[in-house]
Amino acid sequence: MHVVDGVLSVPVLALGGLAAVGGITLGLKQVTAEQIPRVAMLSAASFLITLIHIPIGPSSVHMVLNGIIGLLLGWAAFPVFLVGLLLDAIFLGFGGLLSLGVNLSLMALPAVAVHYLFISKLTNSQRPFLWGAFGGGLAIASTGVLAALALGYSSDAFLPAAKVVLLSHLPLVGMEAFVSGSAIALMSRVKPELFNPIPQPQKSTV
Amino acid sequence: MGLIKLKDVSFSYHPDNPVLSGLNFEILDRERVALTGPNGSGKSTILHLIVGLLLPDKGVIEAFGRERKSQKDFYEVRERAGLLFQDADDQLFSPTVIEDVRFGPLNKGLSKTQADIKAHEALKLVGLLGFEDRVAHKLSGGEKQLIALASVLAMEPEVLLLDEPTAGLDQKAFDKLVGVLKELPQSMVIISHDQTFLKELATRTVILSS
Amino acid sequence: MSAVAPRVRLLCSLIFALLTIACSRLDILTSLLFFATMLAWFARLPVIGTIKKLLVMDGFIMILLVTLPFSTPGTHWFIFAGMEASQEGGRHSAQIILTANAIMLSFLALVASMNPSDIARSLGELGCSEKIVQLLLFTIRYIETLKREFQRLRRAMKARAFRPQSNLHTWRSYGYLTGMLLIRSLDRADRVLAAMKCRGFHGSFPATKTETGLTIADGLFMLWFSLFGLTILVWQWG
Fold first, then answer.
1. Interchain contact C151–A (C-beta under 8 A)
2. How many other β-carbons are positioned within 10 Å of the β-carbon of residue A152?
3. ∠B112-B108-B176 over CA atoms, to 5°?
4. What is the arithmetic mean of pLDDT over C107-121?
5. Could you tell me which of A52, B60, C14, C104 has the fewest CB atoms within 10 Å of its CB?
6. Interchain contact, C199 vs B78, CB within 8 Å
7. Which CATH code fits A10-205?
8. pLDDT of B147-192, one tens digit each?
9. Residues of A in contact with C188 (CB under 8 A)
């Protein structure tokens, strides 16, 4: 998410910041020094993927794919998106500084939730597409809802804009669900051992 | 005397598809062994077994006079046998060249000053003094390969394990690498499909069949 | 500007952001934006590229800026398509656009103009967790490498006449592209870790902190920055 500075109210910023700090702390606990290359590589890859713009009707949107990262990593999605948002700000000038916590929580909280809801379903599943699509769709939909809530709670005057944010997420939900489903289907076919909280380096990949 | 010895080693990534079975292989002091064979015959696997990145299903690995079994046993082997990876990008992970080259010496427990000295010596060996503050991922393919070699040499290994070191190099970079390797005193195991390269360097050839 | 230590610049950028968000008067916010523009000029930011970045960011809040005058009750301003806009709403829009641009511009000038790995290291110097610093350094290092891999995959798609459209085929293909890139990234990570282990890495990074003291340039910059900050504070609340 790219909510800029100057929009959100102080309580919303504080709440987002707290959630972000908590999430990052929990996430980092799961990442050992040996896993840093894996987590960093996923950060780099997801940053690149969000640069793709996909046409939807007359316009185009970029993918978020927080569902996939959530499914792969659980709480470690927090540091991954933190790195992604920092790079967004550094390279592209997107987002805000003080709203970083809120933006991070908007993306990472749904990712973590999706992880705990679907990961057990996904392990050895015959229908990885289905669970990937559920996860991907739910994650981006929740991000949209949370973004609308963050705006709505900051000021009543933001309500119309919040509704637009919510509506504009609808087509995104379908797209993200389908893209996530396909990605997860491919990954579980090529590397079925991936869907652990943080995959350990496998014998066969060294 | 044999520096490294693989005795009756078997290994498979998947149980129904063995890569190596009953392999015997030895590296002697001051020799440069060429390791050739078709893709999938287990050449890289042998190098990874020597430094303990993979553990054999069966058989014995002896290195520097001792049998090596556990991960801890291999810590010492990795300091004395330097493995150069096929893709230099896998090896160079630091922001700048100097940080990469001194990573190994620092892990060995050297102080930063000592590590810097080793790093400079290694850069001198590959002829890239002055590259210290360059950004690793902005180097040319040939430079990357030489820096990766320097990052291995900085650990002062007794044996070099080279996994297709000339893959993707142009003629100039190729010549430079051959020149550097020829001057090195270490024993080497070299995986390569390049006959001219092997002719220049190898003292013995081992052919693996699938 | 490049004489100023990265961690000082990072800290100043954060202070500037806090200062800006605390202010509500439009004249002060305009001065802050002017100050940020000055910083951008000192940092020799490319004019066109920087304006483009800011416009993209403004695009994200366009809807908000346009709806605010109509959704805020207050003094009559103008009527558009039967809806009444309020002056208070217009003021709020102006406040948001000034705040967002001033903060982002100062960030681009003070922080984003630095070498990315210096930014990562200075985060560590300011007390950020070592793991975050390592993560950032690794990510920055491998973005280019993965980008090449990514471009190879995309080029291979294009070479087989793939054109993105709004249909399921496009989405599925992008899904496979994503999945493939993630798998290759993880394979790459495993090879990198293996290479690190070969050079004696057993689970902890060697400490190489080289914290240098602050220079006179750093001191002068901070002094100048604090004076400016104090002026703003007095102006807003004095």
1. no
2. 18
3. 80
4. 93
5. B60
6. yes
7. 1.10.1760.20
8. 999 999 999 999 999 999 998 889 999 999 999 999 999 999 999 9
9. 41
Domain ranges within chain C, ordered by starting residue: 6-122+212-237, 129-198
pLDDT of residue C187: 93
> What's the pLDDT tens digit per position in A38-84?
999 999 999 999 888 887 766 677 888 899 999 999 999 999 999 99
Coil vs helix vs strand at A100: helix
Average confidence (pLDDT) over A181-195: 88
CB B31 within 8 A of CB B202: no
Instruction: Count CB-CB contacts under 10 A for residue A22.
Output: 13
**Contact (CB, 8 A) for A70 and A113:** yes
Residue A206 and residue B48: Cβ atoms within 8 Å? yes
Contact A98, A5 (CB under 8 A): yes
pLDDT at A191 over 90: no
DSSP symbol at C108:
I
Report d(CA A142, CA B16) in Å as an integer.
Answer: 45
Amino acid in position B199? K
Given an 8 Å threshold on Cβ–Cβ distance, is C198 in contact with B83? Answer: yes
The rounded distance, in Å, linking the Cα atoms of A66 and A53 is: 16
The position carrying tokens 């800006």 is: C20
Q: Please state the ipTM of this predicted complex.
A: 0.91
A59-62 and A53-56 strand pairing: antiparallel
Give the mutation candidate from C137, C142, C193, C198 for the B interface (greatest B CB count, under 10 A).
C198
Domain range list for chain B: 2-207
What is the DSSP secondary structure assignment for residue C212, as one 8-state letter? P
Residues belonging to chain C: 238
Burial A78-109, CB ≥16 within 10 A → b, else e: bbbbbbbbbbbbbebbbbbbbbbbbbbbbbbb
Residue linked to tokens 């929740």: A142
In total, the C-beta contacts within 8 angstroms joining chain A to chain B are 8
One DSSP character per residue, B116-175 reads HHHHHHHHHHTT-TT-TTSBGGGS-HHHHHHHHHHHHHTT--SEEEEESTTTT--HHHHH
- Arch. (CATH architecture) of B2-207: 3-Layer(aba) Sandwich (3.40)
State the amino acid at position C140 in one-letter form. Answer: I
